Amino acid sequence: MELKYYDEYGPEIIMQVYDPKTKMQGVVVVDNTAIGVAKGGVRLVPDVTTQEVFGLARAMTWKNALAGIPFGGAKSGIRAPGNSPNKAAIVKAFAERIACLVPQLYVPGPDMNIGENEMAIIAETIGTPKAATGKPASMGGLPHELGSTGFGVFLSTEVALEHSRIPIAGASVAIEGFGNVVTFTAKFLTEKGAKVIAVSDSKGTVYSDKGLDYEMLMKVKKEKGTVTAYPGATVLSAAELFAIKCDVLIPGARPDVIREDNMDKVKAKIIVEAANIPMKPEIELALAKKGMLIVPDFVANAGGVISSYVEFSGGSEKEMFSLVKEKITQNTRTVLDKAKGGDVRKAALELARQRVTDAMHKRGSYIRRQ
Questions:
Q1: Is 325 a residue of the active site?
Q2: Which residues of 208-366 form beta strands (DSSP E)?
């Protein structure tokens, strides 16, 4: 195996595991532990690669550093179908194989096709609640369903509006997707007086310049399976959401939704990235040059990993929301001020790298590549 990307930051450990009984194949990449034990989710997909897991682990190194919590970065993957009938046995076998790392060097969490039930299996197999986060509440967990990530996206939006001198009361918001994360974002924004004028899902977009009622959106999504069943509003295609004139656009579902072929249609003043990688960095930069303020994904959606830290530390739901508010608000303000109207992602990455570099210097492990 040849890893194409490595540098002074890592990865520290790459471990491939296999179980002949279940045919489980897995990989763990611990990228960097200078700031603390490495944290990152487990994804279960049929085509996961070591290279992919490394890229995700590095992203977690920066995300955790920027969040200001004592976690390093890691990620792991299990090569199996998401609907595998023996998923529980596969996850148990994976936990047995990675027990030498957990929780001293690596703490798993939920990711694609892996949720609180699988986190329970990992914790039970390894024999300590610290072996996983995102566990069921009955095991002392703080499930992501509590809304920590969506709350963080709301806080980033609030700071971005303040930075742009736009009052949150009456600010118009368009939201792509209506899943677990952004439903909470919509709730908190509505409670602060913002006007959610458009929401999309896989079936299309529902739009009203007068604003959409949050409770009605939740009702039609639950009963009809789509927000497009919202009564008395205009129904558009899912793609048309990005062309709606608004103060804030929140991409909250799929990656790569703002591209070269539609970026010129975007009319938002602010874009807050709830989803991971909703556009490539060069698209972000091009939109920023047009005057749009963009809050990158790993700044805005870090509420989940902050929640994971509180759970790992034995904290409560109340303590979790308090820390998410403190960290997301502070970090968003810091990177927006640092960017000075320029490339916010670059400013955020520079801050994260500096925090990791400082930690590596303290433990004597930082050697700059020539």
A1: no
A2: 234-236, 248-251, 270-272, 293-295
- Domain 13-62+72-141 shares a fold with domain 148-303+330-350: yes
Alpha-carbon distance 201 to 58, whole Å? Answer: 30
Which helix (H) or strand (E) covers residue 29, if one does? strand 24-32
Domain ranges of the chain: 13-62+72-141, 148-303+330-350
Q: Which residue has the tokens 């919509």?
A: 186
pTM for the model stands at 0.89
**Inter-axis angle of helices 148-163 and 303-312, nearest 10:** 130
What is the distance between the alpha carbons of residues 175 and 168, in angstroms, rounded to a whole number? 15
Distance CA 362, CA 33 (A): 12
Q: Give strand pairing partners of 16.
A: 27
Q: Where is 78: in which H helix or E strand?
A: strand 72-79
In this model, does residue 230 exceed pLDDT 60?
yes
Asked if 130 and 229 touch (Cβ cutoff 8 Å), the reply is no
Where on the phi/psi map is residue 289: left (φ > 0), alpha (ψ -120 to 50), or beta? Answer: alpha
Beta-carbon count within 10 A of 93 CB: 23
End-to-end CA distance of the chain: give it in Å, rounded. 24
Nearest-angstrom CA–CA distance, 195 and 167: 11
> What is the strand order of the sheet 106-109 is part of?
13-19, 24-32, 72-79, 38-45, 106-109
Query: Where is 220: in which H helix or E strand?
Result: helix 214-224
DSSP letters spanning 37-71:
SEEEEEEEETT--HHHHHHHHHHHHHHHHHHTSS-
Q: Which fold has domain 148-303+330-350?
A: Rossmann fold (3.40.50)
Would you give the distance in Å from CA 253 to the centre of its chain? Answer: 11
pLDDT digits (tens, 9 = 90+) for 266-315: 999 999 999 988 999 999 999 999 999 999 999 999 999 999 999 999 99
Fold held by 13-62+72-141:
Rossmann fold (3.40.50)
Distance of CA 296 to the CA centre of its chain: 10
| Identity at 361, one-letter amino acid code | H
State percent of the chain over pLDDT 90.
Answer: 88
Per the DSSP assignment, residues forming a β-bridge with 142 are none
Nearest to 336 by CA among 126, 30, 66: 66
Catalytic residue among 75, 87, 130, 195: 75
Cis peptide preceding 11, ω within 30 of 0: yes
